[in-house]
Amino acid sequence: MRYVSTRGTAPTLDFAGATLAGLAADGGLYVPESWPTLSDEQIAALAGKSYAETAATVMAPFVAGSLSEDELRALCDTAYGRFAHDAVTPLVQLDHDQWLLELFHGPTLAFKDVALQLLGLLFERFLTGTTEHLTIIGATSGDTGSAAIDAVAGRAGIDIFMLHPEGRVSEVQRRQMTTVGAPNVHNIAIRGDFDTAQALVKAMFNDAAFAGRFRLSAVNSINWARLMAQVVYYFYAAVRLGAPARAVAFSVPTGNFGDVFAGYVAARMGLPVAKLVVATNVNDILARALTTGDYSSREVVPTATPSMDIQVSSNFERLLYDLGGRDGGALATQMRGFEAERAMRLSNAQREGAAGLFVGERVDPDGMALAMRHACERAGQVIDPHTAIALAAARRHLAPDVPMMTLATAHPAKFGDAVERATGVRPSLPARVGDLFEREERCVTLDATYAAVSAHVAAHAVPRG
What SUPFAM superfamilies does UniProt report for this protein, alphabetically (predicted)? Predict the structure, then answer.
């Protein structure tokens, strides 16, 4: 399998190269040169497989040429052996046609663990036998940071620098990052929002002089390997509700468009997905883009769903590339226009291509709270605010004979205050999180400027040999 950039001019890489690179050299994102497909018979055969077995089957085409089937299976066994539920991503029934797909049973209580536990192992595997030192730079609106840090803390040959917006992540999210004592972990709070943090990360990758000094890589969903790993749970869940003989639908709480793009990949691979509900909070750039074609950035509004407080969704570029005929030159021009003007219109081909599968929904705080109360009172399920956004959106798009799965992306205890306000129930942290609130925090706070952040990274990173 070969990987190409959405902007058309970066070198074509194999899976190992794309994983270690993260962002493409031309500023684009790596995608497979073509989409592999699974036949109905192959999908049906997943029914009796464990999560690790399913993962190895679904991901095998994407890693071909970089990992053998046995190597991939061993990595999957290790990555998913750390999850607190044997099913890894279990389904919980809400009513006769709605389910929660629980993605928070990993070590940091969020869906990011599903991909990042594997990504940490992939980094280690591809660095083994080399003298290279990897400098991971990422931005987080909450859960990516803690999951990435857990995945690489203490690993040889890797340093991780994680930026988060000061005061705009929950206390549990922050502490899960800042209380990790491994010397290769560097937390940076910036005086700005997530979009600014994400732009600073991309700027470091795109600065030829800076990037030339260090071997940079990414753990954000700009890294293809992360999205690849997330494709698996769409197959795993759908097969348990009757696929491929039965179409299924998913509602996904969405900020950076990575999780829902993984659902699109599953559909391209042959999974019978009837609908992907793109659920946003009031920071609704994606709902507007999919509904009206208006992809224009506005001021970020802080909410009780901080992981969705985003106005520039990096992974949307991958969808626009695929729906626009995979024309890297045209997309590069389109994205340069967006980066300059903070606004653009989707082309007719992009809008028409999205219309058959995606539907965008904006959910306000009242809708979120009502969904949390509904889940608690009618189904006995306490859900976090992000999951509630997706559940509210899902309930607007139910269809007969099509099971709807809402992706439950975080443990409710990560957002205890918001959950308690809506439901009167204070969720407890699982015992496996331990003494989180007693640990010492380590973090620096910097101005949200390229000069300040790049200088800090350069002062603590290991240069190329």
Answer: Tryptophan synthase beta subunit-like PLP-dependent enzymes
Percentage of the chain modeled with pLDDT above 90? 90
Q: Is 121 helix (H, G, I), strand (E, B) or coil?
A: helix
Q: Provide the residue range defining the domain that includes 351.
A: 87-108+227-423
| 409 within some domain | yes
What pLDDT is recorded for position 227? 96
Q: Which residues are catalytic?
A: 112
Reduce the DSSP state of residue 12 to 3 states and report it. coil
Residue 392 lies in a domain: yes
CA distance 147 to 258: 15
* Residue 430 within any structural domain of the chain: no
CB-based burial label for 24 (10 Å; 0-12, 13-18, 19+): buried
Burial pattern 214-243, b for ≥16 Cβ within 10 A else e, equals bbbbbbbbbbbbbbbbbbbbbbbbbbbbeb
Euclidean distance between CA atoms 159 and 461, whole angstroms: 7
pLDDT along the chain (465 residues), means of 10: 98 96 92 98 97 98 97 98 97 97 96 95 92 93 89 93 94 94 97 93 94 91 94 98 98 95 98 98 96 94 92 94 97 95 96 96 98 97 98 97 97 94 94 87 97 98 91
pLDDT per position as a tens digit, 280-331: 999 999 999 999 999 999 999 999 998 899 998 989 999 999 999 999 999 9
Question: How far is Cα 73 from Cα 69, in angstroms, rounded to an integer?
Answer: 6
The half-sphere exposure of 81 on its side-chain side, counting CA atoms within 13 A, is: 7
- pTM of this structure: 0.93
Q: Which of 108, 104, 84 is nearest to 175 (CA)?
A: 108
What is the per-residue pLDDT for 218? 87
List alpha helices for 128-284, DSSP H. 143-152, 171-178, 194-206, 208-213, 224-240, 258-268
**CB within 8 A of 105, min separation 6: which ones?**
83, 84, 85, 88, 89, 90, 113
Other C-beta atoms within 10 Å of 373: how many?
15
Could you tell me if 419 and 431 are in contact, meaning their C-beta atoms sit under 8 angstroms apart? Answer: no
CATH of the domain at 99: 3.40.50.1100
Sheet containing 444-447, strands listed edge to edge, beginning at the edge strand earlier in sequence: 215-217, 134-139, 158-165, 185-191, 444-447
Tokens of 97: 């046609």
Per the structure, the count of domains in the chain is: 1
Whether 4 is in a domain gets the answer no
